[in-house]
Amino acid sequence: MARLADYFVLVGYEMDKRGSGDGQGQILQRFPEKDWEDNPFPQGIELFCQPSGWQLFTERNPPTFFIAVLTDINSERHYCACFTFWEAVESAQPQNHSRNGEGEEEEEESSSPVQPAQLFAPKSLVLVSRLDHAEVFRNSLGLIYTIYVDGLSVSLENVIGNLLTCTIPITGGAQPDTDDEAVRTISLGAGDRQVIQTPINDSLPVSSCSVALLFRQLGITNVLYLFCAALTEHKILFLSSSYQRLTDACRALLALMFPLKYSFTYVPILPAQLLEVLSTPTPFIIGVHSIFQSETQELLDVVIADLDGGTVNVPECVHISLLPEPLLQQTREALSMVLDPELEVADLAFPPSTVSASSLKMQDKEIRAVFLRLFAQLLQGYRWCLHIIRIHPEPVIRFHKAAFLGQRGLTEDDFLTKVLEGMAFAGFVTERGAPYRSIDLFDELVAYEVKRMRAEEGNKQKILRHIKELAEKLYKNENPYPAVTMHKVQKPTEGCHLRLHQKPFPRLDEGTVQWIIDQATAKLQTAPPAVKAEKKCMVPSGPPIAAIMERNGNALANSARRLEVVRNCISYVFENKMLEAKKLFPAVLRAMKGRAARHCLTQELNLHVQQNRAVLDHQQFDFVVRMMNCCLQDCTAMDEHGIAAALLPLVTAFCRKLSPGITQFAYSCVQEHVVWTNIQFWEAMFYCDVQNHIRALYLDNNEENHTDEESKEGPQEVKSALEIASEQLRLWPTMSREKQQELIQKEESTVFSQAIHYANRMSYLLLPLDTSKNRLLRSSGLGDVESVSNSFVTNSIAGSVAESYDTESGFEDAESSDVANYVVRFINRFVDKVCTESGVTNEHLKGLHVMIPDIVQMHIETLDAVHRESKRLPPIQKPKLLRPNLLVGEECVMEGLRVYLMPDGREEAAGGNIGGPPLLPAEGAIFLTTYRIIFKGTPTDPLVGEQVVIRSFPIASLTKEKKINIQAQVDQFIQEGLQLRSCTFQLLKIAFDEEVASESAEVFRKHLHKLRYPQHVRGTFAFTVGQSPKQAMQPKAKEKNPSLRTLSKNLVKNAKKTIGRQYVTRKKYTPPAWEQRSSQHFSEDNEDEISVSEEMDRSTLTSTTTIKPSDKMTINHLVERACCRDYQRMGLGTLSSSLTRSKNEPFRISTVNRMYAICRSYPGLLIVPQSIQDNTIQRISRCYRQNRFPVVCWRNSRTKAVLLRSGGLHGKGVVGLFKSQNAPSAGPSQTDSTSLEQEKYLQAVINSMPHYADASGRNTLSGFTSAHMSSSGKWGSIRASGRMSSYALNVEIGSRLAGKDLLSAQHNGAPSEASFLRQHRASLYIIGDKSQLKGVKPDPLQHWEVVPIEVFDVRQVKASFKKLMKACVPGCPSTDPSVAYLRSLEESEWLSQIHKILQISVLVVELLDTGSSVLVSLEDGWDITTQVVSLVQLLSDPYYRTMEGFRLLVEKEWLSFGHRFSHRGAQTLAGQSSGFAPIFLQFLDCVHQIHLQFPMEFEFSQYYLKFLSYHYISNRFRTFLLDSDYERIELGLLYEEKGERKSQQVYKSIWDYIDRLNKKAPIFFNYMYAPEDGEVLRPYSNISNLKVWDYYTEETLSEGPSYDWELVQGQPEHMEEADRQDTSAPQTKRKIIWPCYDNRSRVEPDAISKLLEELHNLEMELGQVPERWKDTWDKVKASQRTEARQEGSRTPSSLLMSSGLSHHRRSLGVYLQESGVGSTLNLSLDSDTSSTSTPSSGKQGGRKSTSTLYSQFQMSESENRSYEGSLYKKGAFMKPWKPRWFVLDKTKHQLRYYDSRMDTECKGVIDLAEVESITPGTPTMGAPKTVDEKAFFDLKTTKRVYNFCAQDVQLAQQWIDRIQSCLSDA
Q1: Cβ distance 284 to 266 under 8 Å?
Q2: Which of 309, 333, 324 shows the shortest CA–CA distance to 221?
């Protein structure tokens, strides 16, 4: 039984203190006067009776009632029911007093003469109780008031005495069915009766209607906010003007939190004097009257709920974590079903009339049911995460939070994490964790109903039904007897409080009351004590979380396969199948991202541990450790999935023997993980182990007794620790004292032994292998994460990192630098915590503290030995370094450094866009030779581990080298590396292996730098080849790298020997100013000057051309030069003619520059107009930059127009040249005379042209009819006919180039176009740079005209090339989609530059072809000028499109005319700063574009161009070294003695090399070569027509670049042998060709090469001397031709005849690349017949391939037409008959039709292969009227029926016959 009320108190206004501002209350009387022993009197009741402060009022207020809650020091709650009424105050001296009108305080002046009205003071009756029976308290106090007010004849003392002695049954004492005292009727002796119902189960809160009211006041969302705020420990403040409502709201919030109990400050009504409590730092739930609202404004971190206004205000700085989805949504929906049932049917057309919410009391319970369900779902399975550490003397239980979150998959969830960390949950575990206790609704729900809730999810009806069931139970609990709630209590009469002469509340007689109380207590003591019959039982655990969480199982749908891989890999490791394991390993590491795979790994490893120990060999150990590390690296410090926990026993089990008696365990290699430094992890692990041991302890006891029974019953269910505990707790009271003691002892020692065990374990994982290093642990609490020094990092780094952190590590004390101390302290902290929690005795604890330092010290000693031995271990077998093949004469400078080749931005090799296993990263070595940088190794991916990866490039092509840091492998640390970029479009991104010391890497870089930029060109590979490289590396060897001065002296001697004496005067000649490069240490001018003029003859240079005998040899050499041979080919004069001065030739070969005196960078022999004297030339040359005056380099054999080249003009010259004739001149200055001579020079060029010599003198445009244009050649226009006026065309190009203002000054106001189209065409066009020709006026009288164009300079080429390299070979994969390949390609502007060059070249070709000469005079005349001039010749003259011709072109225009290869290629130290400018590469790219468009015009293949592109920068040959012939002669390069050429020297000239290769194999030959005579090519130059050259993007990792032919030969054979060894595998003929790996042209050669190769092999086998491939090829071609002749003029040539394609030979489709496609032997072989051969029906056979070939080239009128004529054709359905021109083509096997005979565009094609039959037809509607019926015929194909009609019957018959014959042929 329990007392209903503990104290009755009467509180009144304290009159004595009226003067002191606010009034105060005082306790007038209290009963009983002395405290109950079990329940002391609560302090401060007077504050709570008037929470807004004690004041006097001017009128009587009606009585009020509310309940305040006080919490005492033992956190017991006392409910104070306050009943307040007002009494009149006896008038006294008027004092200052405040009065409370409508909430406003007024002060009255004391001097006020007005007598104050009657005042009323409040008085309160207070009941203090520990029970919350609000109604009973209201009734009882009301009764006392009624007796007093209405003066009933009942003694107040009696009533109060009865009230205080009234006892009610202890809750839950009985179930309602037994008619026990669960319902108690009480009477206070005033004729009243009250029924008190106690709840059945007091653990469930009683809420009456308060919860429903709270939702009514605030709404669903707001209450949910408050609920979450309360659970996550935020401060909550309620405001209302009603005290009762504050109490109700607070009570409701607490009821919602069930089963969690709120354990912080809880004050439903806070008195005004205590408002400062609100600024407490701890969480609270407090109610405050809303008159104090203003004082709550400045609370920044309090969630304020205004009950009257219905708002919840969450401050900005407070973040409330809400429930995890989907629970939040489900809760919201359930609440709205309960609170607003109309919502569901609001949209129905016929809503049911009966829908209404339950009564308020029922609704209250339904809402609580929703929250109860919510908690059951939140905490489902919580019992599976309880660890029971002690059972006796009382259970100690811990909750494994991390495991719970991990299993629920909610580790990231804020809300649940905060709740589990909160005080409320800690209380929940203590209270509900116990395994043996009475259980309530929540326990049943969480154990048995979770499955049901899971199943009903989403079914609203079922959810609602469940809610109603729960609500019923809750309601039943509060009102066990709804029937007997009959109260009979007197109430005061209406308005009695307003009576005027109400006497004050009487003073009660303490004695009487006390006597009644004493009587009652005496009676109670005699009565037997009421024992609360607790129904204890084992708490059900419910299904484990895993069973509930099934639906998350599909997270890894394919995990079964992954687990299989993990299992296989582990079994391979333990079966010692290392290669197999290695193949699976990367997949295993990838799988480790998944939780299932990590669990699987721990289980599998467990199977391989016998008796706690598994000894492995080194490789196995390494694998296991790597797997463990990978497994742990994704675990958080919490280890929520228990992976680290599962691995903990394993890391102490796996070990390897280092030497006799020394064993290394796996733990020394897996220490680098955060989880080991997390003390919570260790606690959880400890508790888990203790629980297992305690369980074992009791299981053993039981088993001894039950062994025999068990065998009969079969296997029993395995009991969980909690079940065992509850069983033990049930038995505890029945045990004897000794037995109890014994069990306590056993448990304690179990815990203690585990503590020792864990101290050892922790020292294993916390002490680093190398204890001398001050390694700090990573973790939040243990120092900074940055202080991690990886165990892999080289010692020097790790040491320094650790020391720097120690100096200011902010640890508790200074000695923390000592690892041992640190670990000891960490373990001590842990031991203290767990031992005190699990009740280990103090002696034991002290013993532990003594042991720990010894444990740590001992472990350090063993570790030292292990560390020492592990250092001696041979490193794990790395793949052996493969040596690269070297060229003859190429030697290694540095032996291989072991590196990893990392993937760069190209995806192919990394297994990107083409799939397949990644070839990169590969591990191997990097070699530095005198010629190349070579990486050779094997991919780390075991699936392609047998392949060899080679990537290399010539050192000379290195453009950028930078240091980088990269992570080479998944489980390794960051290494230093290099990124080397080459202009042969290769990128080596390498990471040095840890065994490579950083010094070696530095040495590598230095060597590389020296080799890349030698002091002098003699240091390049082309010169040093064959010498020992060691000397080349040492700068001290003077002979190799002489100083500059001595060098130039040697040069001069050399030059003298070669050239003979020079005749150069110092007076006349100053060397030209080259690009001024002041940034270099020396200017090249000086060097040149020395070398030319040191030993000078003072004689002047003679202007005669008689050559002295000493010069003869020079001239002979010069004549041999390429240019000279070419001049003779073009008939520009031979040397003899120039010597004998035959006047009829317009041009002569001048020897004026034979000593390179006029212009250094020109060749020795130049073509100049016949009429110009040599000494004039010298003067003219000064007007041009670099003295590069205009010289002829090519002449059009038909129009005799010439192409000239020169440097740009110097400023003076330009103005002089184009000065208008009548402008006042400044007198005959020297400038004028030169400019006159310049004009004379140009005039001489013009005079040389034949049509200029016509009588007319001016050739008007009309003279240039289209007839003249008949040979217009291949023009890249879309129109088929080449008949447009080429002049208009070139105007269009010209104007496009010049950006539409062709001539900047428009002198006569005429538009510039018009001035360009003057009546005559100029005889000479000068193409100059727009910026140079500013202000130039065109002169109508002169015969030349200037075309100013804008060109890009070398700087732009460099920049563009850099961007091109980055686009084609990006350094790393771009994550940013905006940096895609095509975009970066466009931004590089490389293609626009090529477009510009081609555009200018085509313009010049056009001008030359129409008979005008052109002078190209751009920049210094050696970059763009060279590109344009070379392309013009290539396009205009078919000779240059042969191999011999192309060589000649390059030698003449690039080498002889001084393109500065060394300077542009930055080949020496001097050029290092200027960087690499690929002018020649750009030219080759242009040639490649033309080659693509005209594949039949070139004798050489694309491979030839790539070969040149690679080797012009590789420095393997001497051909492209140095900047001009002059420099080459100086070095003695140009004319080596005849004898020397024969020596075994490696090929010094690239051309010899190409010739030799070409004789051996057709790699440079283009099989489609079928040139036309005099063909001029005009390629399209629009960017849309240009293709990115595959030279930039392709690579062959199998052999490196294929341009060093010797290196890549003879490899395939080895490959095949290797394949043959493995005979066990099934042999397959299929090869996989890998675009980025294999050399396609070799692995899969094109048909012709294959056939030639087979021929060669057969001849070898037959023992014949194999024939040269070229001879074989020529024979085949010849036989084709004779075949063609025999068949007569109308034969169908089975090979593609060139003639049939007269104007359309631009390629439109497939053609042979060097990689070859399919069977292509019948592609174009040349044919002699240039007549149009129209094939007639011949041996066509079923040659489908030919017909498909035809369709690849567009046909013109001269197509193959077997028969043609006009027919009427009926259109498709509902269309009329129309006449069409039909062509029957047997070759293509088709019937084509055109709109008319002249039409070139085919309107439709009927494929004869589809024709089924031809039948005579009948006329249908709309057919031609005049035609005979018999002229109709139908053609039936598989697709439709065509209706035809011929002019007459004969024609129809002919058509039918022809088509029939075609069909039968087929």
Answers
A1: yes
A2: 333
780-833 pLDDT, tens digit per residue, is: 333 333 333 333 333 333 333 333 333 333 444 434 347 888 889 889 998 988
CA–CA separation, 322 and 1052 (whole Å): 90
Q: Rounded distance, CA 1246 to CA 1321, Å?
A: 12
Nearest CA to 1427 out of 1386, 1477, 1476 is that of 1477
Cβ atoms within 10 A of the Cβ of 978, count? 21
The neighbour count for residue 878, using CB atoms within 10 Å, is: 11
Per-residue pLDDT averaged across 1260-1268, rounded?
Answer: 33
1772 burial class (0-12, 13-18, 19+ CB within 10 angstroms)? exposed
Kindly state the tokens that stand for 1462: 């060394």
Instruction: State the distance between the two ends of the chain, measured CA to CA, in whole angstroms.
Output: 116
pLDDT at position 968: 60
Q: Evaluate if pTM is beyond 0.90.
A: no
Candidates 1192, 1165, 1303, 1291; CA nearest to 1246 is: 1192
Cβ partners under 8 Å of residue 109, min gap 6: none
Taking 70 as the threshold, does the pLDDT of residue 1226 lie above it?
no
Q: What is the mean pLDDT of residues 236-249?
A: 93
pLDDT in tens, 370-427: 999 999 888 888 888 888 888 887 888 888 888 888 877 777 788 888 898 888 899 8
pLDDT surpasses 90 at 239: yes
Residue 524's Cα: distance from chain center in Å?
Answer: 80
Six token digits for residue 1250: 């034949």
| Cis peptide bond upstream of 326, omega within 30 | yes
Least reliable range by pLDDT among 73-87, 94-108, 1091-1105, 1372-1386: 1091-1105
Residue 858, both tokens:
């001992």
CB-count exposure of residue 483 (10 Å: 0-12, 13-18, 19+):
exposed
Q: Is the pLDDT of residue 1446 over 90?
A: yes
Helices vs strands, H then E, count in the chain: 60, 44
Query: How would you classify the pairing of strands 1413-1417 and 1763-1770?
Result: unpaired
Q: What's the one-letter identity of residue 149?
A: V
* DSSP codes of every residue in 99-129: EESSS-EE---TT--SPP---EEEEEEEEEE
CA atoms within 13 A on the CB side of 491: 7
**Alpha-carbon gap, residue 1438 to 1271, rounded angstroms:** 14
Closest by CA position to 834, among listed 761, 729, 768, 743: 761
Cα torsion through 1025, 1030, 1031, 1033, rounded to 10 = 90
Identify residue 1242 by its one-letter amino acid code.
Answer: L
pLDDT at 913: 63
Predicted pLDDT of residue 506: 80
pLDDT on residue 1232: 56
Q: Which residues pair with 1785 in a beta bridge?
A: 1790
Helix, strand, or coil (residue 1833) = strand
- Work out the number of other CB atoms within 10 angstroms of the CB of residue 751: 26
Annotate 621-649 with DSSP letters as a single string: HHHHHHHHHHHHHT--TT-TTSHHHHHHH
* Interaxial angle between packed helices 360-378 and 460-478, expressed in degrees from 0 to 180 and rounded to the nearest 10: 110
The secondary element (H helix, E strand) that includes residue 1702 is none
Read out DSSP for 1359-1388?
HHHHHHHHHHS-SS----GGG-HHHHHHHH
- Give 1619-1661 as a DSSP string: HHH--SSPP-------TTTS-HHHHS--HHHHHHHHHHHHHHH
Work out whether strand 105-106 and strand 99-100 pair parallel, antiparallel, or are unpaired. Answer: antiparallel
Q: What does residue 1347 show for φ and ψ, rounded to 5 degrees?
A: -110, 100
* Spatial separation of the C-alpha atoms in residues 1730 and 813, rounded to whole Å: 101
Task: Tell me what percent of the residues of the chain surpass a pLDDT of 70.
Answer: 73
**Which of the 8 DSSP states describes residue 903?**
P
